[in-house]
Amino acid sequence: MKRVYEEVVEEHVLNHNQMIFLSGPRQAGKTTISEKTRELTSFFRYYNWDRLEDRELILRGPSAIISDFGMRSVPNPKPILAFDEIHKYRDWKIYLKGIYDEKKEDISILVTGSARLNVYKQGQDSLMGRYFLYRIHPLSIAELVRQEMSAVDISKPKKIGKEDLEVLLEFGGFPEPFLKQDKQFFNRWQKLRHQQLFDEDLRDLSRIHEIGLMEILAVMIKNQSGQIVNYSNLARRVRVSDVTIRQWISVLEELYYCFTIKPWSNNITRSLIKKPKVYLWDWSKIEDKGSKIENFVACHLLKAVNFWTDIGLGSYDLYYLRDKNQREVDFLIVKDNKPWILIEVKASEKKALSENLLYFQEQVKAEYVLQLAFDLDYVDYDFRDLKQPKIFPVSTFLSQLI
Asked: Is the domain 4-135 a CATH 3.40.50.300 member?
């Protein structure tokens, strides 16, 4: 299936000299997207660090790659040189810098990885200014109904069928299990992905040896999706220190198992300053229906703020709101450091409009205020036309994002 990111990469190849970094969780589609770039040029070469013969060539140095790749006199788009998982190589940043600085006018360089390519800091020289990072997310409602890249952040609503919505919630947004929609395959896929994360990625990219304890922590995080992280409580249960729990959660974030959302404190009376909430990248792992729906929305919102920021529409971020009186609202999208969209998530439309939503709106003055209901049928109505806080369908709102 076509992904919206294919158009993003094509636009970059045609218009920019910087390296393309595609970062995201395993099996989200990065390799497929990079392979699609073959169609953009008459000369394409792909090297995978996990493939022994490619690794041996990479270890011979940049000159070996340049020689193997060869230089072709090709009009725009330029020849494309792609590296997959090269961040596992200790000196990968210096390595790429050497190739880029010598050949940036002659070739396009594309780099993919299942860990955050802007985090691992081995090497003495920075790649700052030499790459654009695009964060690849699993499928979303908007991407199922619209694969074209928009020049604006919010699009007109477009209907997704109820069955597709339920399938997306049940099987998650990773392309292969979503497309197969087979429970047995899904269970095996989940097990394999877990093994790859803890038996391969964790060992390759960290110095953590207590893999069994990390797996226990991962289960606890799964069962606390959408909740505020209590580091001391987790440390007690796993029987490690507070500091260790913080480090381990950070590693799980780098490997795209989970992500955290911080509280927004500007203009909030008696705000909760530091404690984040945690969510999984794969909402299909969550058993509780209410928690799964909130995590489902969180993933969609994170995808949107990452995408809009990455393609240069502005600076977007995602927060939640909570004060010391335990009043809370699930999400706040901030645009260019100003509160923009305030969101509460409910499984049912039968829930009355949240008083906390109205309370915090008085303080943050967000442009749009919504209480999203998962069971409310799609309506062909642009949420930007709402003049006051409103209960609104999840499917309609999320179809307007990315």
From this structure: yes
